[in-house]
Amino acid sequence: MATVDVIVDNLVSLWRIPPIRRYFPWTFIIISVVGSCLKELEVVPHTYFSSSRNVLNVYFVKVSWGWTLLLLTPFLLLSNSSFSRSVSFLGQRLLSLVVATAIWYICTETFFYIEDATGSCFQTNTMDVVKEFSSKASCRRAGFHWIGYDISGHSFILAYSALFIVEETAPMGSLKMASLSPLPRMVLNLLYVALNFIVILWVWMFACTSVYFHTLFDKLLGTLCGLLGWYLTYRVWYLKPLSPGLPPQRQPKEQK
């Protein structure tokens, strides 16, 4: 497991670089704008990732929140337990998962509602309106085509998930002196590497969404919703006493 330890150390060092953490949220805005411009100019050739049926989209992006929770929940429990094993403390930290899931659910359901409220059902070939279907789900089940205002859910969830993971894995840099037994330490290291891989994957698929799908405004609105959800929690609410609080980190004196 020495190789994993080296990878973990390098990743921790990378995220400790202030400009990387400070400007990471802005990369999603930049990618969205630049990708949309490339899409409009039609300079990016069609590839395997220009199809919504590519493996990463079907088995990862479409269930991205499930992957995020699957890996982040045990990591959060293990990492936070090294600071305190208090049930109330761990329960408070687990609330961050509940809050994030609520943000994900509210935003995605709102996007679906807006698309239903602003859209109409059309015949695929003639594009004549089919008035008997009033929702995207029923329209598509009948084999027709629904056109409505489609805020990019992919831009939202990929940006929000990546920022959420980066925030909740921040304590890893403070755990090097923690007295963890070999097995929990190994599991924690593997989870940390997997979560960083997921962040890279989300950024890559976010870029693919930017250059192949949706309009600029649809993607920017979805991205801004993700950034707003992250900012209002980790930069505003979690600084207050009545909140799940920020992920704990030891101060340099404590680590010594």
Automatic annotation (TrEMBL):
Pfam families: FIT
Compartments, as annotated in UniProt: Endoplasmic reticulum membrane
Coiled coil regions in record: none
TM spans (from-to): 59-78, 90-107, 146-166, 186-213, 220-238
A single BP term in Gene Ontology: lipid storage
Primary location recorded for the protein, binned into one broad class: endoplasmic reticulum
GO function terms (MF aspect): coenzyme A diphosphatase activity
Keyword annotations of the record: Endoplasmic reticulum, Hydrolase, Lipid metabolism, Membrane, Transmembrane, Transmembrane helix
Topology of the protein relative to the lipid bilayer: Multi-pass membrane protein
GO cellular component terms listed in the entry, alphabetical order: endoplasmic reticulum membrane
UniProt entry tagged with the keyword Transmembrane helix: yes
Keyword set includes Hydrolase: yes
Top-rank lineage group of the source organism: Eukaryota
PANTHER family assigned: ACYL-COENZYME A DIPHOSPHATASE FITM2
Annotated protein name in UniProt: Fat storage-inducing transmembrane protein 2
Organism: Sphaeramia orbicularis (orbiculate cardinalfish)
